[in-house]
Design goal:
This protein has 6 helices and no strands. By secondary structure, it is mostly helical.
């Protein structure tokens, strides 16, 4: 995030956020979400077949689009819908 902010010229804003409660909550959410996601993924790999677990785990853009529309009120564009359709199509091909 720091590299992206530096390239975008927003580094002072990110640095000022780091010392606040909001910055700490964002950092904690990132660590916990990553940790829980990886634990669930490895648990699924331990008890399931990799050929089925990996494609299912790779379909997160579908859920991200659905949640963005429902929870955030985003309007899906044709390129996003096409991208999700291609990802889901690839997952279905891999599951065969």
């Amino acid at each position: 995030m720091v590299v992206w902010a530096a390239l975008g010229g927003k580094l002072p804003e990110v640095v000022s956020l780091m010392g606040t409660k909001a910055g700490a909550l964002i950092a904690a959410e990132g660590v916990l979400a990553s940790l829980l996601g990886h634990l669930a993924y490895y648990y699924a790999l331990k008890y399931g077949e990799a050929s089925k677990v990996v494609p299912a785990a790779s379909s997160f853009p579908l859920f991200a689009l659905i949640l963005a529309v429902i929870l955030l009120g985003e309007r899906p564009s044709w390129d996003k819908v096409l991208g999700v359709a291609l990802i889901v199509g690839g997952v279905l091909l891999l599951r065969r």
